[in-house]
Amino acid sequence: MVLEKRGVVKPEEGVRALLEHLGEDVTRPGVVDTPKRFVKALGELTRGLREPPPEVVFFPLEYDAEPGPVVIENISAVSLCEHHLLPILLSVSVAYIPGDGVPGLSKVIRLVKWAAARPIMQERFTEWLADLLMEKLRARAVAVEVCGVHMCSFIRGVRDEHHNMVTRAKRGDIDVKLRCRRPPLCR
Questions:
Q1: Is residue 182 over pLDDT 90?
Q2: Which of 25, 40, 116, 124 suits a disulfide with 77, CB 3.0-4.6 Å?
Q3: CA-CA distance, 125 to 118, in Å (whole number)?
Q4: Radius of gyration of the chain (CA)
């Protein structure tokens, strides 16, 4: 990992120290490997910081008519709140008007999941995702709606399990009504 390359304490040692600080007995059998598992899990949740974006495969339109919007609704993704490093469960809906060719459906979903795999502030993430999709999908227009359930306010702070945050962004001339549903685990 990056921390090890800089000669800093190994991440597992930092997690172990944090657990001890919280009062946990790090020698207990159920906890002894927790630092290693935690670092691995955090690596998975932030893979978008280290991995390149997925390549997008395009298919020819094969018709002369002007293409209308393509809508993909309720893509499930997980991110982290950049302020607390707690999970944000996301449901993302996107619409785009194809430019030169149509991207493969699975690639659009993979791109959204890759983009979410990092610490985010949802408002900024939604704007960035719209820009990213415009570029990577070679779209003429894009609309994005993100519905997020933030664990930082679900399990701590105000402890409200009924709220969700919805953010929207548009690029170009696209007339669609997106409606994300609350992420599946939170319904």
A1: no
A2: 116
A3: 10
A4: 20
Q: Return the SS3 of 169.
A: strand
Alpha carbons 88 and 163: distance in angstroms, whole number:
12
Which CATH architecture is the domain 2-45 placed in? Orthogonal Bundle (1.10)
Q: Which segments are annotated as binding site?
A: 81, 84, 152
Of 52, 50, 53, the closest CA to residue 1 belongs to 50
Cα–Cα distance for residue pair 23/10, rounded to 1 Å: 21
**Tokens 């664990």 correspond to what residue?**
151
Identify residue 70 by its one-letter amino acid code. V
Q: 4: pLDDT confidence band, cut at 50, 70 and 90?
A: low
* 131 CA to centre of own chain: 15
- Residues placed in the known binding site for Zn(2+): 81, 84, 152
What pTM was estimated for this model as a whole?
A: 0.89
CATH of domain 57-186: 3.30.1130.10
Enter the tokens of residue 54.
Answer: 């997925």
Residue 159, sorted as left (phi over 0), alpha (psi -120 to 50) or beta, turns out to be left
Domain ranges within the chain, ordered by starting residue = 2-45, 57-186
